């Protein structure tokens, strides 16, 4: 027993066995799920993580009761702020990282590039997942 139970000694990286990630396949051009034979198509592995990440970046955090408070992003809060363009881009990049890193299959978000284009936020980044690297463009 430790005098400070909240402080734990550093140990070797703990690995948790995660089940195979499975999600609904997404049509990125039309922003709708893919259906076949009246049922949604299910993908697994890196494609499933990419599908989840794409959808998570589409949802404003805290707006819809159907989602947990950890799901979605806060980029919408930048609308109408008097921040400089550089600060808005830095904040948007931070919000993107926070949004994506809640997923247990994503260990790192790198090369985040954000661009405000006529009222639309464009995001591209590289996700380091348990299945390898995947590129995300939203």
Automatic annotation (TrEMBL):
UniProt-recorded name of the protein: DUF2634 domain-containing protein
Family annotation (Pfam families): Sheath_initiator
Species annotation: Yanshouia hominis
InterPro entries membership: Sheath_initiator
